[in-house]
């Protein structure tokens, strides 16, 4: 006689899945959800730390109005230049990572060694180490000072863009050095494209240039936007970010309000990336 299970198979699968994600759920509510909720609560209160504990005085939207309107410099003077730098850094990181991933996918001696070399900075370099390198000027390109490119920037480029470009050049090497995750994602994406497609293209007489634009790039569109998403979040949470550096413990309520405003700005950028991905993915759907 065949004994029926106590629960249906689909219920058992759901329970198994729930057990697998239970550690993450418990950790999220224990270490992330409560701090987030408490920081949102503090953003609407004046917070004082006393010997007897934490005192909160309702302040309503006062801190938000102060940051957005009364004292806009606290946000805008640092945010606008940073957004210009990010607009320059993101395409540089994506193009560099894509080119390196294509090179590392080739069959040559020492390929594994070079793959490790490009990913090692991600393992050994914490945010503080990167900041120290930038402070010491180790990320600059040698020809920037020798050719006085900074002087040309100040003379021929609008002031609003000259400083962001100069800052990117001052940390250019470190920006490329910090692209290991993007290279790894592009490399994994490149290996999902079947080699038979390239063999068919070569038989039809396609050159490498056409092969890249007609096969490689359309096949890597999902990975391009995955890297774009990762790079946007990575830059917006980078330790040298000027907005993050303004979040201090001197005024918990004001800092919490600034953090939540910045969080909403990040969500807007992430939403724009997702919307852009949907349109581009539909445009390339017929080529994959």
From TrEMBL:
- Record GO biological process: transmembrane transport
Q: Respond yes or no to whether keyword Transmembrane helix is given for this record.
A: yes
A GO CC term assigned to this protein in UniProt: plasma membrane
Q: Where are the transmembrane segments?
A: 21-42, 86-104, 116-134, 168-188, 220-238, 258-278
Q: Where in the cell is it found?
A: Cell membrane
The record gives the membrane topology as: Multi-pass membrane protein
Please report the name of this protein according to its UniProt entry: Binding-protein-dependent transport systems inner membrane component
């Amino acid at each position: 006689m065949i004994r029926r299970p106590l629960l249906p198979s689909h219920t058992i699968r759901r329970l198994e899945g729930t057990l697998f994600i239970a550690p993450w759920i418990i950790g999220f509510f224990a270490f992330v959800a409560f701090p987030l909720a408490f920081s949102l609560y503090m953003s609407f209160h004046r917070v004082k730390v006393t010997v007897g504990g934490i005192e909160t005085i309702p302040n309503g939207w006062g801190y938000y109005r102060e940051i957005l309107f009364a004292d806009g410099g606290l946000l805008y003077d640092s945010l606008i230049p940073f957004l210009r730098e990010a607009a320059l850094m993101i395409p540089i990181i994506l193009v560099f990572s894509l080119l390196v991933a294509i090179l590392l996918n080739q069959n040559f001696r020492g390929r594994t060694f070079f793959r490790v070399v490009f990913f090692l900075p991600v393992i050994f370099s914490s945010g503080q180490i990167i900041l120290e390198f930038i402070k010491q000027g180790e990320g600059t390109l040698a020809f920037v000072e020798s050719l006085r490119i900074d002087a040309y920037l100040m003379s021929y480029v609008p002031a609003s863009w000259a400083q962001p470009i100069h800052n990117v050049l001052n940390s250019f090497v470190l920006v490329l050095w910090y692209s290991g995750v993007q290279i790894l994602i592009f490399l994994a994406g490149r290996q999902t494209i079947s080699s038979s497609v390239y063999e068919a293209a070569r038989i039809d007489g396609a050159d490498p240039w056409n092969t890249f634009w007609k096969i490689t790039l359309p096949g890597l569109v999902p990975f391009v936007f995955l890297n774009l998403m990762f790079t946007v979040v990575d830059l917006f949470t980078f330790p040298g970010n000027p907005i993050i550096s303004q979040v201090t413990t001197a005024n918990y309520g004001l800092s919490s309000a600034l953090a939540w405003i910045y969080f909403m700005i990040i969500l807007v950028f992430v939403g724009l990336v997702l919307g852009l991905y949907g349109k581009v993915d539909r445009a390339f759907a017929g080529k994959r």
